[in-house]
Every structure is written in structure tokens, then in C-alpha cells.
Amino acid sequence: MTIKTTPDIPGIRQYNNGNFFLIAGPCVVENHDMPLEIALVIKEITDRLEIPFIFKASYRKANRSRQDSFSGIGDIAALESIARVKSQLDLPVITDIHSAQEAEVASRYVDILQIPAFLCRQTDLLEAAAKTGKWVNIKKGQFLAPESMKFAVEKVTGTGNNNVMITDRGSMFGYQDLVIDMRGIPAMQEFGHPVILDITHSLQQPNQPGGISGGKPAMISTIARAGIAAGVDGIFLETHPDPSNAKSDGANMLNINLLEKLLSDLVMIRQAYLRTQ
């Protein structure tokens, strides 16, 4: 079963043109003004291209290789900064959570709760996110087969909340690399929920000796084009005005100056894909 319409998320623009939807933003809130500044740029581009847009930013980075890595500006300050994007730009917003206790707090500020890949099997976390009544985006663990994600989905839907999305961010390919298996897209679409491809984290190179993940951002377009051609419902990406100076995941983020060209190309590929259906 392939979902060909935009999820019914509060605030998301419904263009009814068959386009993919986009989840995009910086890796983490670095300061109070940054989310709104980046969201404005993405909104202008997606409005022109008629792409439904969900703004993404992490309010805290709990999963860092090194103890001295930047983790955030403070939970409530960052959540308020994300919520300002929602209120001022009338956009749906998403952030990731790491514990059952965080689900209720974050749900006061955002429309979608994201479950990190490493935590996608945590029953109490999934159930807590589901019980808020919010949409839940579950990132597929790098250690899981696509077919196994149905059990993560069932932990959400088993509470009575059917508002679930699944995001593939690749599978471990040795200790320091990831690989995307495009067969996972139709496999997970069989569950009856939107499937999203993370085109930036899937190019991450984790477990580097220096404790800072590497990446291959030059391959973002390649992964994105392949995902759209394979019929993915949504695209997830992280973007930044100056990735080389980003405080988290700069090595695999897309420079925001390259975003419009990438999305324009993907819209054309999507239109070609739809003609084959």
C-alpha cells in the first residue's frame, strides 16, 4: 500500500498535487533566533514549489559521541524557539524525544514527536509518545530490517493512535558507514503509513576515532533522487547556513544555499514517478 497524499497533520499545507512532503531544519537549536531564520528560508522555497513542509529541530542532542559535544541551549528555551516557528509561520513542527518523561513535555510545543533510530524498540518511549495523541515519527534503527519496523508501529497503534510515520536512515555497513536499501521503502509502505527517507543522516559516517561523526554531503542529491524514484512519501533532511560551523552533524548537513536546486530536481522526478503509477 503506497500513501500518495500528504499526512493529515495540523497546519501542514495540502496541495493535492501528489508531491512528496518535506521534514527539514537544523540538527539542533543553536540559539533562539536560528530556527525561525532557517524555517523562513525553507518555507519560501517550499511554498514556491508547492511542497508540504514540516519544520524540524532537536531541542536537545542526547546522543553524542563525546561528553564535551554541544547538546543544546536548555530544554525549555529550545522548545519555545521551535514553537515560535509554529506560531509565527503557521507550520507544523517536529522534535525528537529520548525518554517517556520527555514525551509529555515536548508535546506541549510540537505537533510531531520523533523517536530516534537507536530508541525505536523502546516500548515505554513509543507508548508514551503515542498517548500524547500527537503524530509519531519512528526512525528505523540502523540494526533493524525494514520488515521488523511493523512491531514498532504496532506499539504506537496499539494505544489507539494511528498517526504514525516511519523514517529510514540507513543500515550499518561496517563500523563507520551506512547504506540505504531502497527495497525497504515499499516493504515499510505495506504497513499503511507514510514512509520517509532521511537523506542526510543516511550519509553519516559514525564511530570515527576522534569522536565526531563524518559524512558525505556530496552524495545527498544521489540518495534523494533514488528515494523519490523509488516512491518514498516524504524526505527528511537537515540543513544549515554554514554546515562547517554547525554545532552538531555539520559533516552530513546540506548547505541551505543548495536546497532550492535539490528540491526543484526532486519535484521533477516525483512528477515522472507519478506518471508511471
UniProtKB/TrEMBL annotation:
Keyword tags: Cytoplasm, Transferase
Pfam family, one: DAHP_synth_1
Subcellular location: Cytoplasm
Pathway info: Bacterial outer membrane biogenesis; lipopolysaccharide biosynthesis; Carbohydrate biosynthesis; 3-deoxy-D-manno-octulosonate biosynthesis; 3-deoxy-D-manno-octulosonate from D-ribulose 5-phosphate: step 2/3
An example Gene Ontology CC term for this record: cytoplasm
Record has Cell membrane as a keyword: no
UniProt record, GO biological process: lipopolysaccharide biosynthetic process
Keyword Cytoplasm: yes
Catalyzed reaction equations: D-arabinose 5-phosphate + phosphoenolpyruvate + H2O = 3-deoxy-alpha-D-manno-2-octulosonate-8-phosphate + phosphate
Example of a GO MF term: 3-deoxy-8-phosphooctulonate synthase activity
Enzyme Commission identifier(s): 2.5.1.55
InterPro entries recorded: Aldolase_TIM, DAHP1/KDSA, KDO8P_synthase
Domain DAHP synthetase I/KDSA: 16-264
Enzyme class: transferase
Domain of life: Bacteria
Family statement drawn from the similarity comment of this UniProt entry: Belongs to the KdsA family.
Protein name, per record: 3-deoxy-8-phosphooctulonate synthase
Organism: Lentimicrobium saccharophilum
